[in-house]
Specification:
Blueprint lengths: L1 H12 L7 E4 L16 E5 L8 E5 L2 E5 L7 H10 L4 E7 L4 H12 L1 E3 L6 E4 L2 E7 L9 H12 L4 E3 L5 E4 L2 E7 L11 E7 L2 E5 L5 H10 L9 E3 L10 H7 L3 E4 L10 H9 L3 E2 L5 E5 L3 E6 L7
Parallel strand pairs: 1-18, 4-5, 5-8, 8-9, 13-14, 14-15, 15-16
Antiparallel strand pairs: 2-3, 2-17, 3-4, 6-7, 10-11, 11-12, 12-13, 17-18
Helix pairs in contact: 3-4
Length: 304
C-alpha cells in the first residue's frame, strides 16, 4: 500500500509533460466545428473485454495494434464495416499471446464468399504486412504458428520489427521499442510510441516492472513521453516510478473491464483518476489534431 501511495504522490509532484490538451466528450456530436475536416490521428480501443485490439488511423491509412482474443472477432469485423475499412497498412502484434494475436490471424483469414457461402471471392481486407518482433520460426505458441500459416497462405508479407525501428502511418510516426532480455513473452512485448504533431501515445503491450525499467534505461526519454498511455497487461501491472517520471501521461486507458478482479484496488483508483477509460466496458475513441485530444466512449458491447 505504501508503494501505491508513493506513486500517487509522485504523479502530483511531477511537472506536467503533456503538450496536448485533453477534452472528454459524450459522443462525436460534441466535437468542435470543423474538427473532422482536419488531418487527425484516431485511436480506437475496441471493446474486446480483457484483451487488446487497438485500431490506429491517420491520413487514410489503418493499422491494428493487436487483435484481441479470437472469440471477439465479430466485434472487430462489425466495427470495421461501420467505419468502411477495407484494408490495413500494418497488422502489428506486440507479443504472441492469444488475447493479442488471434484476432489478427482472423483478419488475415477472413475471406469474401459468394451467395452459396462456399465460393472464395478473395480477401475481405488488403494487408500491407504482418509485423511482430518475433522471428518467423518462433514455435513456442500455437497462436504465432497460426498467424504465420495465414500470412503464408494468403501472401501477407511478414515483417519482423526491431528495437529502434520507425514506421509511418499517414502523418504519424511510430517508434518501436522492445526489451531484449529473456524475461518472458510479456516483458518482451514490442512497445510503440505514436507521434502526431505535439500529441504522443505510448503503447506498453504487457510489459511488467523489469521491462519498464529496461526501457527507461535503454531508450531516449523523448521516446517515452506521452499524453496517453495504455496500461500494461490489461491493468494487472502497474507503472514503476521510473516509467512515470519519463512518460508523465495525462490519460491512461485500460484494455479490461473496470470490475475485473485482476485489477488491484490501488491501481483502479489511479486509473479512475486518469480518465476512467476501460475499453472492456465500451469501445474508447481518442482523436487528436496534433494539439488537442477529444475522447469519448461507446456503449458496452453487451448493452447495445
Amino acid at each position: 500500500m505504501k508503494k501505491v501511495l508513493l506513486l500517487f504522490l509522485l504523479l502530483f509532484l511531477l511537472p506536467a509533460a503533456a503538450l496536448a490538451e485533453v477534452h472528454y466528450i459524450a459522443d462525436e456530436s460534441q466535437l468542435p466545428e470543423g474538427w473532422t475536416e482536419k488531418e487527425l490521428l484516431r485511436l480506437t480501443s475496441i471493446d474486446v473485454q480483457r484483451s487488446d485490439a487497438i485500431l490506429v488511423q491517420c491520413g487514410g491509412e489503418n493499422m491494428m495494434i493487436d487483435g484481441g482474443s479470437g472469440q471477439y472477432y465479430e466485434r472487430l469485423a462489425e466495427y470495421f464495416d461501420a467505419q468502411e475499412i477495407t484494408g490495413f497498412k500494418y497488422l502489428f502484434n506486440t507479443h504472441p499471446d492469444n488475447d493479442h494475436l488471434e484476432g489478427l490471424t482472423k483478419i488475415m483469414n477472413h475471406r469474401l464468399t459468394a451467395e452459396d457461402g462456399e465460393t472464395d471471392l478473395g480477401p475481405k481486407y488488403t494487408i500491407g504486412s504482418f509485423c511482430t518482433a518475433v522471428e518467423k520460426t518462433y514455435t513456442k505458441t500455437k497462436y504465432h504458428k497460426a498467424a504465420v500459416r495465414a500470412a503464408d497462405k494468403y501472401g501477407v508479407p511478414y515483417q519482423q520489427v526491431y528495437h529502434g525501428d520507425v514506421l509511418t502511418l499517414g502523418g504519424a510516426t511510430i517508434n518501436v521499442m522492445r526489451c531484449n532480455e529473456s524475461w518472458g513473452t510479456n516483458n518482451r512485448s514490442a512497445c510503440t510510441q505514436i507521434v502526431f504533431g505535439d500529441s504522443k501515445v505510448l503503447m506498453m503491450g504487457d510489459c511488467a516492472a523489469k521491462a519498464q525499467r529496461y526501457l527507461v534505461k535503454h531508450c531516449d526519454p523523448s521516446l517515452l513521453a506521452c499524453d496517453v498511455i495504455k496500461a500494461s497487461h490489461h491493468g494487472i501491472n502497474f507503472f514503476v516510478d521510473e516509467m512515470l517520471e519519463a512518460a508523465q501521461p495525462e490519460v491512461v486507458f485500460v484494455t479490461n473491464f473496470r470490475s475485473h478482479d485482476s485489477i488491484k484496488s490501488g491501481y483502479r483508483r489511479y486509473y479512475d483518476d486518469k480518465g476512467k477509460l476501460y475499453s472492456g466496458d465500451g469501445t474508447v475513441i481518442m482523436e487528436t489534431d496534433g494539439t488537442d485530444w477529444y475522447i469519448w466512449q461507446l456503449p458496452n458491447w453487451a448493452k447495445k
